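Our consortium's second objective concerns turning raw sequence data into structural hypotheses that experimental partners can test. To show how far this objective has progressed, the report includes one record in full. It was chosen at random from the queue rather than selected for favorable results. The single chain below, 267 residues long, was entered without modification.
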Amino acid sequence: MKIVEKITLCFLAAIFLASAGILAWHALRAYTAQSHMEDLATRKAGETAKDLETRKGVIKGTYKDLWKENEDLIGWIEIKGTHIDYPVMQSKEAPEFYLTHDFKKEREPAGTPFMDASSDISLPTQNWLLYGHNMRSGIMFHDLLKYADKDFYEAHKTLRFDTIHPGQGHEYEIMAAFYTSVGASGFRYFEYAGMVTEDDYETYVENVKELSEYETNVTAQYGEQLLTLSTCSYHVPGRNGRFVVVAKQAKNTVKEGLRNADRTHGR
């Protein structure tokens, strides 16, 4: 074998080994991140755990131990049939902190699902906007894109979102799922994260229903809590693509929330 061929083969082998090493490293990081999330899920207390009175209001017993570890915890998101079973964080002082950090506030490329700084579970605002990475390994909000398929929607019409406060959240009905862009031509859904007026609410619902990949026969009226989940999508060049799922609080959980609202906020 000629020396040039030997050098070429060695070079290609080195590239292969380097690529394999990188893939293995990413796989290990993804496994570690997911394992950490699963561990957090097992540490939630039961529904009968005693609630905790704090300066930030009443913390539901289920989440009080985790909240004591990190007071940026504001809720929990779960979609059956997906990897999505995660804590939801919020840092109004550093709004995108959890884009690159885990629950322990340590550096983590996969980040942790978090709520937009304009949304507020304590007021509350009419729309709660959550962000999560679309990781190729399948973790975080990657599975959100399954809602582009109507058959998947038909089998998974609801999701669960609890805040740390008693009586807030629970079951939500999916009302729209759509692709958009954060560029100039896309619907600027993220500007409605903190909406409180009826006009903004109606405009938002009209737009998300129009953009939806399919009809869900679910809509919302002002006063019904909305939940918006957002992740990256690669249907447009660059990093401007987004896939968004919008849901409203199911009617069978609204009354429970109203009954507990005064206790939640110390009234």
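The partners drew two points from this record. The first strand starts at residue 52 and ends at 54. The domain at 9-264 is CATH 2.40.260.10 (Sortase; Chain: A;). Both points have been shared with the crystallography group to help prioritize constructs.
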